[in-house]
Amino acid sequence: MLIWYSGRAVHIHFKLRLYAGTTKSYEFTSQFFFNDTLTDSVYTLSPYSSRGTGNTRNASDGIYNSLSTADKAGLTLQTTKTTDGYAGVINLGVNVG
User: For the residues of 55-76, what is the DSSP string, one character each?
Assistant: First the structure.
C-alpha cells in the first residue's frame, strides 16, 4: 500500500540483510521511488483517492534530489500495468566488504 506523508514523495523503504549462519553480517537500507505520473494515477483509485493527492513530487523530495542521475534512474521503479494493478522489478547491486 502506498502512503504519502508531508515533505516526501511517494517511496517504499527496503532492507537487504546478509547472514553468516544465524549472525547478521551486513545490513543495507534504502528506498525506491515511483514515476510521478504513475503515482498520480494510483491516487485516483480506491482506497488511495480518499487521501487526496500527495503534496511532494520527486523533484521536490530532498532525499530523491540528493541522488545522482544514475541513482535516481536505478531507484525509480519501472512498472507495467497488470489486471490486478501494477508490477515492477528493481535490480540492485550492493558492494559488501
Answer: S--GGG-HHHHTS-HHHHHHTE
User: Within a domain: residue 1?
Assistant: no
pLDDT, averaged across the chain:
88
Number of domains in the chain: 1
Q: Which domain holds residue 64?
A: 11-89
Would the pTM of this model clear 0.85, i.e. be above it?
Answer: no
Helix, strand, coil percentages (3-state) for the chain, rounded to 5, are: 25, 35, 40
29: DSSP letter? E
Predicted pLDDT at 2: 54
